[in-house]
Amino acid sequence: MGSIALSNPTNISSLFTTNVTVTIANDDATLQLSNASVTVDEAAALATVTVTRVGDISRAATAQFATTDSAGLQSCTVANGKASERCDYGTAVGTLRFAINETAKTFTIPIVNDALVEGDETFTVNLSAPSGALLGATTTATITITDNDSSPATQNPVDGVAFFVTQQYIDFLGRLPDAVGFANWTRVCRCTGPKQSRTRLSRQPEPESGSNFP
After folding, report:
1. Which stretch of DSSP H or E encloses residue 131?
2. What's the pLDDT band for 10 if we cut at 50, 70, 90?
3. 3-state class of 84 per DSSP?
4. Domain end marker among 154, 184, 204
5. pTM to 2 decimals?
6. What count of other Cβ atoms lies within 10 Å of the Cβ of residue 94?
7. Domain co-membership, 87 together with 99
8. What is the per-residue burial (b if ≥16 Cβ within 10 Å, else e) of 56-66?
9. How far apart are CA 21 and CA 9, in angstroms?
């Protein structure tokens, strides 16, 4: 990083900006997704994505990641190969921070194990805004969710306690539940049965320390 200073103007009254900072990008290091495609079973709960760094690893580096899809506001029952953040997975957005000598980082994307016969569906994850390195060849990966349903469900899965609790974590916190929180909220919901669990959960105080969603 360096700077350029301007001074002694000629034929102009003044200089509005006299100093400019120049940052030289580290082109001796690159960040990229380890795979251009990832396949995950719908029942796997999450998809794991890996970002690798090659070249100069003697300094820190960062990059941003984000999921995206083209499903828009389509109904969750539509089977057209397009996964939706509203129905099939939890949005994942964040920054990966590579410390000195780190060569790989991972992040996870929650997958919704619904009961719809919809076929395999895809969405994408993108890598952008690098700092301390350049982007490599693979900056976009296609995530394929393999459908595990072969016949229509006889019961809405949200009436099941485990599915309901898991979905609250995905919808409100963007992550899967931790073991302690899941166990506590599952116990709370099962006090009255699955069909009453939504009402009870909305009114129930925290059952004990550490069992709140966060």
Report:
1. strand 121-131
2. confident
3. coil
4. 154
5. 0.79
6. 11
7. yes
8. ebeeebebebe
9. 19
